[in-house]
Amino acid sequence: MILSIAWVVFITYALLGVFIISGLFRIPRTKAVSEPLPTVSLLISCRNEEKDIDDCLRSLAQLTYPKDKLQIILVDDYSTDATPAKLKAFADQYDHAAFYSGEEFPETHLEAKGRGIARAASKASGDWLFITDADAVVPPHWIEHMLYGTHDDSGLIVGTTETINKTFLATLEKIAGIYTIPVGWGLAGWGIPINGLGPNMAIRRKFYEQYGGLEAANFRIAEDHALFNMIKKNGHDIHHQMDENIQIKLKPVKTYAQIISQQRRWIKGGFEGSILERVLIASLLFFAMTFSLFFLYVVIAFPTYGLIFGSIKFVTDSIAYGVLSAKTRSKGLLWLIPLTFIYTIVSFIWLPLSFLFKRDIAWMGDGYEVTYK
Fold first, then answer.
1. Does 43 lie in the same domain as 8?
2. Which of 107, 260, 343, 348 is buried most, with the most CB atoms less than 10 Å from its CB?
3. What pLDDT, in 10s, does the model give residues 238-250?
4. Same-domain pairing of 227 and 281
C-alpha cells in the first residue's frame, strides 16, 4: 500500500517537473529595448555594507543605460560603519546618482529593507523603479534587457539571481536559489506567477504610487512579495525574465544561521499573499515534504525502488537545471546536482517542520537583526 502511494507521489513529481521544464522553455531570451526608452530610478537600501558595497557601486557605474534616463538613489538605513561615506562619495562622483541618510526621513511602521526602499521610492522620478541589494553585482546591460517585452499595462519585472559560490557555505546558499528559481519561472512560463525576487525586480512607478507604495502594503517580512502582490491583485502583467544579461550575482551570507533565517523568511513571506497564493505555496511545501519523507522510507525499506525513485528525481532535476544553465549562461550548476539532491531532501523536511517549534522569523544583517513575531 505504502509503495503504491510512493509510486503516485514520484510519478506526480515527474509530471510536475515536465510542466515546470516546459514552462521554462516558454520564457523567451531577452533583447535590449530600443528608443523610446523609459526613465528609470534605481533604488538601493544599505545598512552596514562597507565590505560589499564597493563591488555593487562599481557595477552601477558600468551600467550602459543612458545616463539622462537613469536616476540612482542610494539610501543609508542607519549604518554604523563606513557605508554612508562610500555612498556619498559615489553620489558626489556621478550626476545621475543621489545619496540620502535615514535621518532625513520621517519614521513609519516599515522595517529593514522595506523601509529603505520606500524612502528611496519617495525621491524617485523614473517611469520604472528598479530594485537591487547592496551586496549585488548587476550586469552592464541589466536595465535595457529587463525592460524587454514590457508594455503599458506591465506592472512588474522579475529577474534571476545567482550566489557567488567560492566557499561550501556559499554553495549551500546557491543550491537553495537554483532550486526555487526553476519552480517560480517554470510556473510563470505558464502564466502562473507566484513570486517576486527582491535583489532583481522592477515595478512601474505610477502603479506603485497609485496603490499607496510599501507604506500601504499589508506585509511585515517580504517587501518583494508585497510589491508582487500589489501588482498581481490589481490585474497588471508580471514579466519573469531569464537571460545572462539580467542575471544578478549576489555575495553569500556569512553564516549557516543566516541561510536558515533566509529560507524561513522566504517561506513565511510567501504566506503574506492572497488566500489562493497561500494555498498554492502550502500545497507545494506539503508535496515537497511528502515526497522527501516517502523517498527516505523507500530507500530504507525498498532499496531497489529507492534507486528507481532517486533516478526519477535526478533526471527531472538535471533537465530543469540544464535549461536554467543554458538560458542564463550559469556555469557549474550541473556539478551541484548530487549535493542539491541531498540538501533538498533534508531541507524539504525540516524547513516546514521548523515552524512548529519556532514561529519567529529573523532578518539578519551585519551586526544587527530584526525579529518578526
1. no
2. 348
3. 999 999 999 999 9
4. no
Among 201, 217, 252, the domain-final residue is 252
Q: Where are the alpha helices (DSSP H) in the chain?
A: 2-26, 53-61, 83-93, 112-121, 142-146, 168-189, 205-210, 213-216, 223-232, 256-270, 275-301, 303-328, 337-357
Distance CA 236, CA 78 (A): 34
In a domain, 267, yes or no: no
Q: Are residues 216 and 295 in the same domain?
A: no
| pLDDT at residue 356 greater than cutoff 80 | no
Q: What is the band of 10 on the pLDDT scale with cuts at 50, 70, 90? A: confident
Cell digits for 197? Answer: 525576487
Same domain, 55 and 117: yes
Task: Give the pLDDT score at 68.
Answer: 95
Q: Which of 11-25, 151-165, 174-188 has the lowest mean pLDDT?
A: 174-188
Residues 55 and 198 in one domain: yes
From 266, 210, 260, 270, select the one nearest 234 (Cα to Cα): 210
Residues 6+ apart with CB under 8 A from 2: 294, 297, 301
Q: How far is CA 4 from the centre of its chain?
A: 37
The angle that helices 53-61 and 83-93 make with each other, rounded to 10 degrees, is 10
Q: Could you tell me the pTM of the whole model?
A: 0.90
Distant-in-sequence, close-in-space partners of 7: CB < 8 Å, separation ≥ 6: none
Domain that holds residue 334: 2-25+274-368
The total domain count for the chain is 2
328 in Cβ contact with 160 (< 8 Å): yes
Which range (66-75, 139-148, 305-314, 348-357) has the least confidence?
Answer: 348-357
By three-state DSSP, how is residue 105 classified?
Answer: coil
Residue 259 resides in a domain: no
